[in-house]
Design brief:
With 132 residues, the protein is an alpha+beta fold. The protein has a single domain, classed as Cytidine Deaminase, domain 2, CATH 3.40.140.10. 33% of the residues are buried. The structure holds tetrahydrodeoxyuridine.
Length: 132
Amino acid sequence: MTLFDAALAARANAYVPYSRFRVGAAIRCPDGSVHAGCNVENVAYPQGTCAEAGAIAAMVASGRTTIVEVLVVADGPELVTPCGGCRQKLAEFADPEVPVILADLGGERVRTTIGALLPGAFAPAHLAGSGQ
Ligand code: THU
């Protein structure tokens, strides 16, 4: 299954009674496996989760922790990029050169990278040496 098809299928199940804005995300791992997620909103708005977070949770639940490709699909006046929090979540499992593909319902539109989306990401190296 392509990342686009997986993300689109997950997007169809997005739970978005508040924003009505459906997002799908899909992640590929080094073994070729694909893990998808959709946004899941909540009446307590801050408890809602993004599509990328759902895809990451599915990947980790499957026993994998390395991302080699990401795709996000939504339908709006502009292509959707991962929010700031999701950029950090993705960076936990993806090297800076990992491609992030932005898609609309017509297909893939823009290719960027984790490093371009989140330069200077907070990383494990920042924790090293902390005595506290
Ligand atoms: N959303 C995502 O799922 N991923 C993004 O990268 C941007 C925003 C969701 C969160 C919320 O459910 C809706 O889009 C509107 O913000």
